[in-house]
C-alpha cells in the first residue's frame, strides 16, 4: 500500500475527530481501568454502562444532549452503588444484577415505543465513533481533562485506599470520599467511552488494557502508564484498522485490546522462561 | 449522661469510659473502661470474638461506639484528629498482596497522610521511609515485590509503614500471629524501643507466654473488661484461664447470654 493509502483515513474531518476522540477514550479508560482492575470494579463499570442507557434514551426523547442524560444517570448510579456497598446489607452483585439490567430494559422499552427508530440502538450498544460531532469532541476532551486532573490531585489517596482502605482511613485519609470520587470519575469515563465502543464493550476497555499492564509490571505507577499505552494503542490502532477491514470500529478496538492482553501474557511467560533458562 | 465529658488527663494517650460497640444487633464490646498512657505498651488478650480488634478499631476511629465515651489523643472522635496521628496495623490477611507494589512502595504509603497533594514526596520522606525499613530490618528487600515476602516479612512491612507515618498512637492487631521467631523478637524489641521513647502502644495477641516481656500492662477482654494490670499478676490471677475454660464448655450459650445481658443493661440501645 502506498503512503497515500496509509494516511488516507486522516483526510476526512470526521476521521480526524474520531482519532482524537479515540486517543482520549483510550488514555482515559485505561488509566481508570488501573483502579477498576485493582479494586475489582469491572462488574460495577458494566452496570453503570448499562444503566446509563436509560439516561441516553430519556435525553433523546426530551431533545437533550445524550451525553448529559447518560452522565446524570451514570453518576447517580455510581453514587448509589457507593452508598449500597457502604451499607453492606445487600450484595453489590445482586444490586447491579437487578437494578442495572432493569434500567437497561427501561431504556430499550422506551426506545422500542418510538414509531421510528431515529436513534440507532446498535450504535449505542456497540459505539459509533465515526459520528462524533465537534461539540461531542469538546465534551469528551473536557470530561477527560477533569478526570485526569482529579487523578493527579487524588493520586496518593487513591493509591493508598486501593491497597489498604482500612489503614488509610485510620491514618486520617477519608477513604469513603476517595471511593465516591473514584466511582463518579468511573461514571464520567464510561459516558465518554460510550460513543467510541458502546455499552456492551465499554467494560472491556476499562479492564483489558489495565489487566495486560498488570501482567508486565509489579509497581502501580508503571502499571498505570503501561495501561495508558495499551489503551491508546487499542483505540487508535483499532479505529485505524477498522477503516481498512471495513468492520465495526468498537469491535475492532476491543479485539485489538484483547490481542494485546494475550501478547502481554505471552511476554510474561516468555520472560519467566528465559529467566529460568539463563 | 450527667457526668462531665471525658477528657484525656496529662500523660493519657487514650481513655474509654463505659464504651459500647455494636455490629447491628450484636454487642461486640460493652462497659469497657480503659486507659492507655504515653510510654506504655498495653496488651490485650481474650478469646476469638472477645472484642480485641473491636477495641483497637474503635480507638483508631474505624468504628463508632454506640455508647459510652472516648478520648483519643485529646479528641472525643479519633476521626477528627490531624491526619497521621493514629497508625493502625491490621492482620496481614487484610490486604491483597498481589497488589503492584514493592516493599518500599508500601512503607512510603505511611507518609501519604502527612503529605497534601501539592507537596512532592521529598528527601525528608525518603529518609523516614529508609529508617522505618531499617527499624524492621527490611532495607535489603526494599525493591522486592510484596507478593514475594514471607508472612513475617509482610508483617514487618506493615509495621514499618506505621512507623513511617510518625504516629502519636500505635495500634497493632495480632502482629505476632503466624510470624517466625526472628520477626517476633524484632517486633518486640521495636515496640519496647518505641515505648521507651514515649509512644503509647496498644496490641492484641494470642500469645500469653511472654506478656511480661512485651507489655507494661495487660487487659483481659471478653466483650467486657475482665482484668487489667501488671501482665504477670493478671496471668497468675487466672482471669484469662477462667474464660478459656468457660468459653470452651459453654460456647455459644454464654455468648448469647452476654448479648442479652448487654441489652438489659442498656435498654436505650435496643432497636
Structural topology:
The complex is a heterodimer of chains A (278) and B (271).
Chain A: H1 3-7, H2 13-38, H3 42-61, H4 66-87, H5 92-112, H6 121-126, H7 134-153, H8 155-163, H9 165-170, H10 175-216, H11 220-245, H12 249-277
Helix pairs in contact in A: 2-7, 2-10, 2-11, 3-4, 3-5, 3-10, 4-10, 7-10, 10-11, 10-12, 11-12
Chain B: E1 12-23, E2 26-37, E3 41-45, H1 52-59, E4 67-72, E5 86-89, H2 103-109, H3 123-135, H4 151-164, E6 169-173, H5 181-196, E7 201-204, H6 211-214, E8 217-221, E9 225-229, H7 231-237, H8 239-265
Parallel strand pairs in B: 3-7, 3-8, 5-6, 6-7
Antiparallel strand pairs in B: 1-2, 1-4, 8-9
Helix pairs in contact in B: 2-4, 3-4, 4-5
Task: Outline the structure in words.
Chain A has one domain: ABC transporter involved in vitamin B12 uptake, BtuC (Orthogonal Bundle). Helices cover 83% and strands 0% of the residues of chain A. Chain A contains twelve helices and no strands. Chain B is α/β, with parallel strands linked by helices. Chain B folds into two domains: 1-81 and 171-177 and 199-271, Rossmann fold (3-Layer(aba) Sandwich), CATH 3.40.50.300; 86-166, no CATH class. Chain B is 35% helix and 21% strand. Chain B is built from eight helices and nine strands. A six-stranded mixed β-sheet of chain B has the order 5-6-7-3-8-9, sandwiched between helices. Chain B has a three-stranded antiparallel β-sheet with strand order 2-1-4, sandwiched between helices.
Domain unit count of chain A: 1
Number of helices of chain A: 12
Q: What is the CATH level 1 assignment of chain A?
A: Mainly Alpha
Shape of chain B: globular
Strand content of chain B: 15-25%
The helix-strand sequence of chain B is: EEEHEEHHHEHEHEEHH
Question: What is the distance, rounded to the nearest whole angstrom, between the alpha carbons of the first and last residues of chain B?
Answer: 20 Å
CATH class category name of the largest domain in chain B: Alpha Beta
Distance between the termini of chain A: 42 Å
CATH fold group of chain A: ABC transporter involved in vitamin B12 uptake, BtuC
Q: What is the fourth-level CATH superfamily of the largest domain in chain B?
A: P-loop containing nucleotide triphosphate hydrolases
Helix content of chain A: over 70%
CA radius of gyration of chain B: 19 Å
Shape of chain A: globular
Q: What is the quaternary state of this protein? A: heterodimer
Average pLDDT of chain A, to the nearest integer? Answer: 90
Amino acid at each position: 500500500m502506498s503512503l497515500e493509502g496509509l494516511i488516507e483515513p486522516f483526510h476526512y474531518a470526521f476521521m480526524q475527530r474520531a482519532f482524537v476522540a479515540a486517543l482520549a477514550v483510550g488514555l482515559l479508560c485505561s488509566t481508570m481501568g488501573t483502579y477498576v482492575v485493582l479494586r475489582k470494579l469491572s462488574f460495577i463499570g458494566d452496570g453503570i454502562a448499562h444503566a446509563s442507557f436509560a439516561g441516553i434514551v430519556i435525553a433523546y426523547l426530551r431533545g437533550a444532549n445524550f451525553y448529559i442524560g447518560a452522565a446524570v444517570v451514570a453518576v447517580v448510579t455510581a453514587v448509589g452503588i457507593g452508598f449500597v456497598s457502604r451499607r453492606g446489607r445487600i450484595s453489590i452483585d445482586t444490586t447491579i444484577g437487578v437494578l442495572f439490567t432493569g434500567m437497561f430494559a427501561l431504556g430499550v422499552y422506551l426506545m422500542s415505543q418510538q414509531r421510528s427508530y431515529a436513534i440507532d440502538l446498535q450504535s449505542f450498544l456497540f459505539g459509533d465513533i465515526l459520528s462524533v460531532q465537534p461539540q461531542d469532541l469538546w465534551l469528551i476532551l473536557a470530561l477527560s481533562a477533569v478526570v485526569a486532573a482529579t487523578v493527579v490531585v487524588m493520586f496518593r489517596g487513591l493509591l493508598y485506599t486501593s491497597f489498604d482502605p482500612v489503614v488509610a482511613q485510620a491514618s486520617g485519609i477519608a477513604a469513603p470520599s476517595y471511593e465516591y470520587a473514584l466511582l463518579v470519575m468511573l461514571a464520567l469515563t464510561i459516558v465518554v467511552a460510550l460513543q467510541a465502543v458502546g455499552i456492551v464493550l465499554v467494560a472491556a476497555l476499562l479492564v483489558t488494557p489495565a489487566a495486560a499492564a498488570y501482567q508486565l509490571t509489579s509497581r502501580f505507577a508503571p502499571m498505570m502508564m503501561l495501561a495508558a499505552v495499551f489503551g491508546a494503542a487499542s483505540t487508535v490502532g483499532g479505529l485505524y484498522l477498522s477503516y481498512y477491514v471495513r468492520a465495526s470500529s468498537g469491535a475492532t478496538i476491543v479485539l485489538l485490546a484483547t490481542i494485546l492482553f494475550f501478547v502481554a501474557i505471552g511476554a510474561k511467560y516468555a520472560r519467566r522462561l528465559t529467566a529460568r533458562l539463563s | 449522661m450527667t457526668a462531665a465529658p471525658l477528657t484525656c488527663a496529662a500523660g493519657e494517650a487514650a481513655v474509654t469510659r463505659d464504651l459500647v460497640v455494636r455490629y447491628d444487633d450484636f454487642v461486640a464490646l460493652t462497659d469497657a473502661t480503659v486507659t492507655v498512657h504515653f510510654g506504655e505498651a498495653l496488651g490485650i488478650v481474650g478469646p476469638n470474638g472477645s472484642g480485641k480488634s473491636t477495641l483497637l478499631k474503635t480507638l483508631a476511629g474505624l468504628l463508632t461506639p454506640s455508647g459510652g465515651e472516648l478520648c483519643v489523643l485529646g479528641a472525643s472522635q479519633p476521626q477528627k484528629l490531624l491526619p497521621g496521628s493514629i497508625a493502625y496495623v491490621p492482620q496481614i490477611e487484610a490486604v491483597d498482596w498481589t497488589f503492584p507494589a514493592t516493599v518500599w512502595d508500601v512503607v512510603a504509603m505511611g507518609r501519604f497522610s502527612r503529605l497534601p497533594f501539592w507537596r512532592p514526596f521529598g528527601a525528608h520522606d525518603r529518609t523516614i521511609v529508609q529508617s522505618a525499613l531499617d527499624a524492621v530490618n527490611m532495607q535489603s528487600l526494599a525493591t522486592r515485590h510484596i507478593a514475594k515476602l514471607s508472612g513475617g516479612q509482610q508483617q514487618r512491612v506493615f509495621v514499618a509503614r506505621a512507623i513511617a507515618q510518625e504516629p502519636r498512637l500505635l495500634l497493632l492487631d495480632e502482629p505476632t500471629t503466624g510470624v517466625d521467631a526472628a520477626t517476633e523478637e524484632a517486633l518486640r524489641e521495636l515496640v519496647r524501643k518505641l515505648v521507651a521513647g514515649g509512644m503509647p502502644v496498644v496490641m492484641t495477641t494470642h500469645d500469653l507466654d511472654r506478656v511480661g516481656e512485651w507489655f507494661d500492662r495487660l487487659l483481659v477482654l471478653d466483650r467486657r473488661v475482665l482484668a487489667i494490670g501488671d501482665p504477670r499478676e493478671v496471668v497468675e490471677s487466672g482471669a484469662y484461664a477462667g474464660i478459656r475454660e468457660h468459653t470452651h464448655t459453654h460456647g455459644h450459650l454464654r455468648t448469647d447470654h452476654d448479648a442479652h445481658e448487654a441489652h438489659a443493661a442498656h435498654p436505650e440501645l435496643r432497636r
